[in-house]
Amino acid sequence: MPERILKEIKKIESVEFVAISSYKGEVGFKTGSYISDTVLKQVTIHLIRTFSACKIQGHKLMNMELYWRDRFIIARYAEGFLIFTLCRSLEAMSLLRITLNVTVANLLDNKRFLKWLKKQSYDPLRHLRHGQFDDDEIRLISKVR
């Protein structure tokens, strides 16, 4: 079922790629245009580290939009995982936000997904212990309100 849901999100105008990652940094489900595993891992860890830093500062971050390599990344954080998309434009941003919220609710009702998520249990704050923040991460964290 997670794959089917991701394929539906991929049908939204300008969405090129969709992935679900645990806070461990493991991408469990993905669909869309080709992204190398190395780049996908970097993006995923970057999103998790930003979420973790905001959490430490007391901010409850649920959504994040950022521009990266001529694409927009739209991320939706949930308990234990994140779902994110790469888009060519922000034309369907409202629809995409609503769809990601509904997707999170559907995933949390899916037994197969919950089984995968249980195996991926991980404290996202552990990613903060892996090196220093780069300039982009510092800039992002400073903009969180």
What's a quick, concise take on this entry?
The protein is α+β, with helices and mostly antiparallel strands and 145 residues long. The chain has helices at 2-10, 37-56, 93-107, 111-119, 135-143; strands at residues 15-22, 27-32, 63-68, 71-78, 81-87.
Q: How is the secondary structure organized here?
A:
Elements: H1 2-10, E1 15-22, E2 27-32, H2 37-56, E3 63-68, E4 71-78, E5 81-87, H3 93-107, H4 111-119, H5 135-143
Antiparallel strand pairs: 1-2, 1-5, 3-4, 4-5
How would you describe the overall organization of this protein?
This protein is α+β, with helices and mostly antiparallel strands and 145 residues long. The chain has a single domain (2-127), classed as Beta-Lactamase. Helices cover 43% and strands 24% of the residues. It has 5 helices and 5 strands, in the order αββαβββααα. It has helices at 2-10, 37-56, 93-107, 111-119, 135-143; strands at residues 15-22, 27-32, 63-68, 71-78, 81-87. The protein has a 5-stranded antiparallel beta sheet with strand order 2-1-5-4-3, sandwiched between helices. Strand 4 (71-78) and strand 5 (81-87) form a beta hairpin. The chain starts with a helix and ends with a helix. The mean pLDDT is 83.
